[in-house]
Amino acid sequence: MLLDRPGGVRLSWEQFGSGPVPALFLHGGPGSGISDFHHTLFDPSTNRVVAFDQRGCGQSTPSVADDLSSLPGNTTQAQIEDIEALREQVGVERWLVVGLSWGATLALAYAESHPGRVNGLALGAVTTTSRAEVEWISRDLRRVFPEEWEQLERVAEPRRAERVVDALYRAITSDDEAVRDRAAVAWGRWENTHMSLDPHFSPDRRWEDPRTRIELATLILHYWSHDAFLGAAGILQGVDQLATIPGVLVHGRRDLSSSMSVPFDLHRAWPASRLVHIPDEGHGGPAMIRELRAAVRRMSIDMRG
Q1: Rounded to whole angstroms, how far apart are CA atoms 156 and 152?
Q2: pLDDT at 201
Q3: Collapsing DSSP states into helix, strand and coil, what is residue 250?
Q4: Which of 63, 251, 255, 300 is catalytic?
Q5: How far apart are the C-alpha atoms of 23 and 141, rounded to whole Å?
Q6: Is 204 among the catalytic positions?
Q7: Rounded distance, CA 288 to CA 281, Å?
Protein backbone atom coordinates (compact mmCIF):
# COMPACT_ATOMS: atom_id res chain seq x y z
CA MET A 1 0.00 0.00 0.00
CA LEU A 2 1.09 3.57 -0.61
CA LEU A 3 0.51 6.69 1.44
CA ASP A 4 0.88 10.05 -0.30
CA ARG A 5 2.78 12.70 1.60
CA PRO A 6 3.59 16.33 0.79
CA GLY A 7 6.33 17.05 -1.74
CA GLY A 8 5.60 14.07 -3.94
CA VAL A 9 6.71 11.50 -1.34
CA ARG A 10 4.90 8.16 -1.37
CA LEU A 11 5.42 5.80 1.54
CA SER A 12 5.19 2.07 1.00
CA TRP A 13 3.60 0.44 4.03
CA GLU A 14 2.04 -2.81 5.12
CA GLN A 15 -0.18 -4.13 7.87
CA PHE A 16 -0.29 -7.66 9.24
CA GLY A 17 -1.78 -9.47 12.18
CA SER A 18 -5.30 -9.16 13.55
CA GLY A 19 -4.64 -8.95 17.28
CA PRO A 20 -6.06 -6.33 19.63
CA VAL A 21 -2.75 -4.58 20.43
CA PRO A 22 -1.61 -2.10 17.73
CA ALA A 23 2.13 -1.94 17.08
CA LEU A 24 4.46 0.02 14.85
CA PHE A 25 7.78 -1.35 13.61
CA LEU A 26 10.59 1.07 12.67
CA HIS A 27 13.49 -0.33 10.66
CA GLY A 28 17.13 0.57 11.01
CA GLY A 29 19.67 2.09 8.69
CA PRO A 30 18.57 4.72 8.01
CA GLY A 31 17.69 3.20 4.68
CA SER A 32 17.43 -0.51 5.46
CA GLY A 33 13.75 -0.76 4.57
CA ILE A 34 11.40 -3.42 5.86
CA SER A 35 11.66 -7.14 5.18
CA ASP A 36 9.96 -10.32 6.30
CA PHE A 37 12.32 -10.41 9.29
CA HIS A 38 10.28 -7.99 11.38
CA HIS A 39 7.26 -10.30 11.16
CA THR A 40 9.14 -12.64 13.50
CA LEU A 41 9.09 -10.09 16.32
CA PHE A 42 5.31 -10.16 16.70
CA ASP A 43 2.48 -12.58 17.41
CA PRO A 44 -0.16 -11.84 14.75
CA SER A 45 -2.88 -13.12 17.09
CA THR A 46 -1.87 -10.49 19.65
CA ASN A 47 -0.61 -7.61 17.52
CA ARG A 48 -1.88 -5.61 14.60
CA VAL A 49 1.38 -4.38 13.13
CA VAL A 50 2.11 -1.46 10.82
CA ALA A 51 5.52 -1.22 9.13
CA PHE A 52 6.79 1.02 6.36
CA ASP A 53 9.79 1.86 4.23
CA GLN A 54 11.03 5.17 5.54
CA ARG A 55 11.60 8.12 3.23
CA GLY A 56 14.04 7.57 0.41
CA CYS A 57 14.41 3.80 0.63
CA GLY A 58 12.82 0.46 -0.14
CA GLN A 59 9.60 0.72 -2.11
CA SER A 60 8.92 4.28 -0.97
CA THR A 61 9.49 6.98 -3.57
CA PRO A 62 11.45 8.88 -4.55
CA SER A 63 14.53 6.83 -3.70
CA VAL A 64 17.65 8.77 -2.79
CA ALA A 65 19.45 6.50 -5.24
CA ASP A 66 17.56 8.31 -8.00
CA ASP A 67 16.69 11.73 -6.62
CA LEU A 68 19.04 13.69 -4.40
CA SER A 69 16.70 16.68 -4.54
CA SER A 70 14.46 14.87 -2.05
CA LEU A 71 17.14 14.92 0.67
CA PRO A 72 16.35 18.35 2.19
CA GLY A 73 12.86 17.10 3.06
CA ASN A 74 14.19 13.87 4.54
CA THR A 75 14.49 14.73 8.24
CA THR A 76 13.59 13.15 11.54
CA GLN A 77 10.82 15.69 11.97
CA ALA A 78 9.34 14.79 8.56
CA GLN A 79 9.47 11.09 9.46
CA ILE A 80 7.68 11.78 12.74
CA GLU A 81 4.93 13.46 10.72
CA ASP A 82 4.88 10.42 8.41
CA ILE A 83 4.32 8.15 11.41
CA GLU A 84 1.44 10.30 12.60
CA ALA A 85 -0.09 10.24 9.12
CA LEU A 86 0.14 6.44 9.11
CA ARG A 87 -1.41 6.24 12.57
CA GLU A 88 -4.36 8.31 11.42
CA GLN A 89 -4.60 6.26 8.20
CA VAL A 90 -5.02 3.00 10.12
CA GLY A 91 -7.24 4.51 12.81
CA VAL A 92 -5.04 3.78 15.83
CA GLU A 93 -5.13 5.97 18.93
CA ARG A 94 -2.06 4.58 20.72
CA TRP A 95 0.42 1.85 19.88
CA LEU A 96 3.44 -0.11 20.98
CA VAL A 97 6.48 1.14 19.06
CA VAL A 98 9.30 -1.28 18.24
CA GLY A 99 12.58 -0.10 16.75
CA LEU A 100 15.98 -1.53 15.88
CA SER A 101 19.22 0.48 15.69
CA TRP A 102 18.38 3.74 13.86
CA GLY A 103 14.74 2.67 14.31
CA ALA A 104 15.30 3.04 18.06
CA THR A 105 16.34 6.67 17.58
CA LEU A 106 13.29 7.37 15.43
CA ALA A 107 11.03 5.59 17.93
CA LEU A 108 12.40 7.69 20.79
CA ALA A 109 12.10 10.93 18.81
CA TYR A 110 8.51 10.07 17.90
CA ALA A 111 7.62 9.21 21.50
CA GLU A 112 9.12 12.47 22.76
CA SER A 113 7.09 14.42 20.19
CA HIS A 114 3.84 12.47 20.73
CA PRO A 115 4.02 10.76 24.15
CA GLY A 116 0.23 10.45 24.26
CA ARG A 117 0.29 8.17 21.22
CA VAL A 118 2.78 5.63 22.61
CA ASN A 119 1.83 2.81 24.99
CA GLY A 120 5.36 1.47 25.22
CA LEU A 121 8.75 1.23 23.51
CA ALA A 122 10.64 -1.98 22.77
CA LEU A 123 14.07 -1.15 21.37
CA GLY A 124 17.00 -3.28 20.26
CA ALA A 125 20.61 -2.38 19.34
CA VAL A 126 19.83 0.99 20.87
CA THR A 127 21.03 4.23 19.33
CA THR A 128 20.11 7.85 20.01
CA THR A 129 22.27 9.25 17.16
CA SER A 130 23.75 12.04 19.25
CA ARG A 131 26.75 14.08 18.08
CA ALA A 132 28.92 11.98 20.40
CA GLU A 133 27.64 8.74 18.83
CA VAL A 134 28.29 10.04 15.32
CA GLU A 135 31.81 11.05 16.33
CA TRP A 136 32.33 7.63 17.91
CA ILE A 137 31.27 5.66 14.86
CA SER A 138 32.89 7.89 12.23
CA ARG A 139 36.08 8.99 14.02
CA ASP A 140 36.82 7.52 17.45
CA LEU A 141 36.65 3.90 16.31
CA ARG A 142 39.93 4.53 14.50
CA ARG A 143 41.43 3.61 17.89
CA VAL A 144 40.13 0.06 17.36
CA PHE A 145 40.46 -0.20 13.57
CA PRO A 146 43.26 2.24 12.60
CA GLU A 147 44.12 0.73 9.21
CA GLU A 148 40.51 0.46 8.10
CA TRP A 149 39.75 3.99 9.26
CA GLU A 150 42.77 5.30 7.38
CA GLN A 151 41.34 3.72 4.21
CA LEU A 152 38.00 5.43 4.89
CA GLU A 153 39.69 8.79 5.42
CA ARG A 154 41.68 8.35 2.21
CA VAL A 155 38.46 7.97 0.21
CA ALA A 156 36.74 10.81 2.07
CA GLU A 157 39.56 13.31 1.34
CA PRO A 158 38.38 15.75 4.04
CA ARG A 159 39.15 19.41 3.57
CA ARG A 160 40.89 21.43 6.25
CA ALA A 161 39.04 20.97 9.60
CA GLU A 162 36.30 18.96 7.86
CA ARG A 163 34.98 15.85 9.59
CA VAL A 164 35.32 12.56 7.71
CA VAL A 165 31.56 12.01 7.95
CA ASP A 166 30.92 15.42 6.35
CA ALA A 167 33.47 14.79 3.61
CA LEU A 168 31.84 11.47 2.81
CA TYR A 169 28.42 13.13 2.76
CA ARG A 170 29.78 15.68 0.28
CA ALA A 171 31.00 12.78 -1.88
CA ILE A 172 27.83 10.70 -1.63
CA THR A 173 25.77 13.70 -2.80
CA SER A 174 28.08 14.48 -5.72
CA ASP A 175 26.77 14.81 -9.27
CA ASP A 176 29.44 12.34 -10.31
CA GLU A 177 28.05 8.79 -10.05
CA ALA A 178 31.54 7.31 -9.79
CA VAL A 179 32.34 9.54 -6.81
CA ARG A 180 29.07 8.56 -5.17
CA ASP A 181 29.69 4.85 -5.59
CA ARG A 182 33.27 5.12 -4.36
CA ALA A 183 32.00 6.75 -1.16
CA ALA A 184 29.26 4.13 -0.78
CA VAL A 185 31.72 1.25 -1.20
CA ALA A 186 34.06 2.80 1.37
CA TRP A 187 31.27 3.35 3.87
CA GLY A 188 29.96 -0.18 3.38
CA ARG A 189 33.44 -1.55 4.05
CA TRP A 190 33.60 0.54 7.23
CA GLU A 191 30.14 -0.66 8.36
CA ASN A 192 31.26 -4.26 7.94
CA THR A 193 34.43 -3.44 9.90
CA HIS A 194 33.01 -1.85 13.04
CA MET A 195 30.36 -4.56 13.38
CA SER A 196 32.88 -7.37 12.97
CA LEU A 197 33.66 -8.12 16.63
CA ASP A 198 30.24 -9.70 17.17
CA PRO A 199 30.82 -13.48 17.30
CA HIS A 200 27.75 -13.90 15.09
CA PHE A 201 29.01 -11.42 12.50
CA SER A 202 28.90 -12.10 8.80
CA PRO A 203 29.46 -9.39 6.17
CA ASP A 204 26.28 -7.58 5.14
CA ARG A 205 25.76 -8.61 1.53
CA ARG A 206 23.54 -5.60 0.84
CA TRP A 207 26.71 -3.57 0.36
CA GLU A 208 27.51 -5.70 -2.69
CA ASP A 209 24.48 -4.42 -4.61
CA PRO A 210 25.26 -1.06 -6.30
CA ARG A 211 21.79 0.44 -5.93
CA THR A 212 21.26 -0.75 -2.36
CA ARG A 213 24.62 0.54 -1.17
CA ILE A 214 24.00 3.97 -2.71
CA GLU A 215 20.61 4.16 -0.98
CA LEU A 216 21.95 3.00 2.38
CA ALA A 217 25.12 5.08 2.40
CA THR A 218 23.33 8.23 1.23
CA LEU A 219 20.72 8.06 3.98
CA ILE A 220 23.12 7.01 6.72
CA LEU A 221 25.56 9.81 5.91
CA HIS A 222 22.70 12.30 5.49
CA TYR A 223 21.43 11.64 9.01
CA TRP A 224 24.85 11.20 10.60
CA SER A 225 26.20 14.41 9.08
CA HIS A 226 23.20 16.32 10.47
CA ASP A 227 23.19 14.69 13.95
CA ALA A 228 19.85 13.11 13.02
CA PHE A 229 18.35 16.62 12.93
CA LEU A 230 18.04 16.39 16.72
CA GLY A 231 20.71 18.88 17.75
CA ALA A 232 23.94 18.07 19.58
CA ALA A 233 22.12 16.99 22.77
CA GLY A 234 19.75 14.74 20.85
CA ILE A 235 17.27 12.39 22.49
CA LEU A 236 18.46 12.94 26.08
CA GLN A 237 17.42 16.57 25.92
CA GLY A 238 13.74 15.57 25.69
CA VAL A 239 13.85 12.38 27.74
CA ASP A 240 11.46 13.81 30.36
CA GLN A 241 8.67 13.31 27.82
CA LEU A 242 9.16 9.55 28.23
CA ALA A 243 8.57 9.59 31.99
CA THR A 244 5.28 7.67 31.93
CA ILE A 245 6.07 5.41 28.96
CA PRO A 246 7.37 1.91 29.80
CA GLY A 247 10.33 0.76 27.76
CA VAL A 248 12.69 -2.15 27.27
CA LEU A 249 16.21 -1.57 25.95
CA VAL A 250 17.98 -4.68 24.62
CA HIS A 251 21.65 -4.25 23.79
CA GLY A 252 24.80 -6.27 23.20
CA ARG A 253 27.83 -5.48 25.35
CA ARG A 254 30.13 -6.14 22.38
CA ASP A 255 28.29 -3.61 20.24
CA LEU A 256 30.99 -1.23 19.00
CA SER A 257 28.61 0.44 16.55
CA SER A 258 26.64 1.78 19.51
CA SER A 259 28.55 1.41 22.75
CA MET A 260 26.89 0.06 25.90
CA SER A 261 27.04 3.55 27.38
CA VAL A 262 24.25 4.66 25.02
CA PRO A 263 21.43 2.50 26.43
CA PHE A 264 22.95 2.80 29.93
CA ASP A 265 22.76 6.61 29.90
CA LEU A 266 19.30 6.51 28.37
CA HIS A 267 18.06 4.03 30.97
CA ARG A 268 19.51 6.11 33.80
CA ALA A 269 17.65 9.19 32.53
CA TRP A 270 14.44 7.21 31.90
CA PRO A 271 13.42 5.34 35.07
CA ALA A 272 10.39 3.75 33.39
CA SER A 273 12.73 1.74 31.16
CA ARG A 274 14.36 -1.65 31.73
CA LEU A 275 17.84 -2.40 30.39
CA VAL A 276 18.64 -5.90 29.15
CA HIS A 277 22.25 -6.44 28.16
CA ILE A 278 23.48 -9.40 26.17
CA PRO A 279 27.04 -10.14 27.33
CA ASP A 280 28.43 -11.87 24.24
CA GLU A 281 26.73 -10.17 21.28
CA GLY A 282 27.29 -7.04 19.25
CA HIS A 283 24.97 -4.96 17.09
CA GLY A 284 22.16 -7.45 16.78
CA GLY A 285 22.26 -11.20 17.25
CA PRO A 286 20.01 -14.17 18.00
CA ALA A 287 19.88 -13.63 21.78
CA MET A 288 19.06 -9.95 21.31
CA ILE A 289 16.23 -10.81 18.92
CA ARG A 290 14.88 -13.41 21.36
CA GLU A 291 14.91 -10.88 24.20
CA LEU A 292 13.28 -8.22 22.04
CA ARG A 293 10.61 -10.64 20.90
CA ALA A 294 9.94 -11.60 24.53
CA ALA A 295 9.71 -7.91 25.50
CA VAL A 296 7.19 -7.26 22.72
CA ARG A 297 5.13 -10.23 23.88
CA ARG A 298 5.17 -9.23 27.56
CA MET A 299 4.35 -5.60 26.85
CA SER A 300 1.55 -6.58 24.46
CA ILE A 301 0.02 -8.87 27.08
CA ASP A 302 0.15 -6.06 29.64
CA MET A 303 -1.52 -3.68 27.19
CA ARG A 304 -4.15 -6.25 26.32
CA GLY A 305 -5.08 -6.40 29.99
Answers
A1: 6
A2: 81
A3: strand
A4: 255
A5: 35
A6: no
A7: 8
Whether the bond between 115 and the residue before it is cis, its omega within 30 degrees of 0, is: no
Q: For the chain, report the end-to-end CA distance as a whole number of angstroms.
A: 31
Q: Is 225 a catalytic residue?
A: no
Question: Where along the chain do the CATH 3.40.50.1820 domains lie?
Answer: 2-130+230-304
Cβ atoms of residues 138 and 57 within 8 Å? no
Q: What are phi and psi of 14, to 5 degrees?
A: -140, 165
Q: Which residues pair with 51 in a beta bridge?
A: 14, 25
In terms of Cα–Cα distance, which of 31, 70, 94 is closest to 246?
A: 94
Annotated active-site residue 101? The verdict is: yes
DSSP 180-224: HHHHHHHHHHHHHHHTTTSTT----GGGGSHHHHHHHHHHHHHHH
pLDDT of residue 66: 93
In the DSSP assignment, the letter for residue 133 is H
> How far apart, in whole angstroms, are the C-alpha atoms of residue 264 and residue 86?
31
Looking at domain 2-130+230-304, its CATH superfamily turns out to be: Alpha/Beta hydrolase fold, catalytic domain (3.40.50.1820)
Q: Please tell me which residue in 60, 101, 225, 300 is annotated as part of the active site.
A: 101
The DSSP letter of residue 61 is B
- CA atoms of 228 and 99, how far apart (whole Å): 16
Cβ(24)–Cβ(98) below 8 Å: yes
Of residues 27, 226, 267, 283, which has the active-site annotation?
Answer: 283
Over the chain (305 residues), the average pLDDT of each successive run of 10 is: 95 96 97 92 96 97 95 97 98 97 98 98 96 94 95 95 96 96 97 85 88 96 96 89 97 92 97 95 88 96 84
